[in-house]
Amino acid sequence: MNLAAVEIKAFVPATDFATSAQFYLALGFEIPWSSDGLAYVRHGETSFLLQAFNEADFVKNFQMHLLVENVDDWHAHILAAGVPARFAVKVGEPANQPWGMRDFTLFDPSGVLWRIAQNLPQDGAS
Description:
Layout lengths: L10 E4 L2 H11 L2 E5 L3 E6 L2 E7 L3 H5 L2 E5 L3 H10 L2 H5 L7 E3 L3 E7 L5 E7 L7
Parallel strand pairs: 1-4, 5-8
Antiparallel strand pairs: 2-3, 3-4, 6-7, 7-8
């Protein structure tokens, strides 16, 4: 019996599908496939499915976590690309968290909360 899992993807809701797709492209993701209401969105080896889904209570409670190698570079890229002004979204400042990560928050155009983070070296780690 082989019960190996290969991949798991979240269905990220989008209240305005076209605007959300443009937002993720501006962040540096690519969309190799899409239909009228569903898109395969990826960056390197990470991916999710963007779905035209407009249920306000669900969208406002949906969160994603993106683990990156350098959170400060991602933050600088988002600001340099003009993403906050272009899409009228909020982006927080990077900060070290007590759970051993440095992260910042970013809301997408639908209100989905993203935490973009990197692991911090642990005490005693070389």
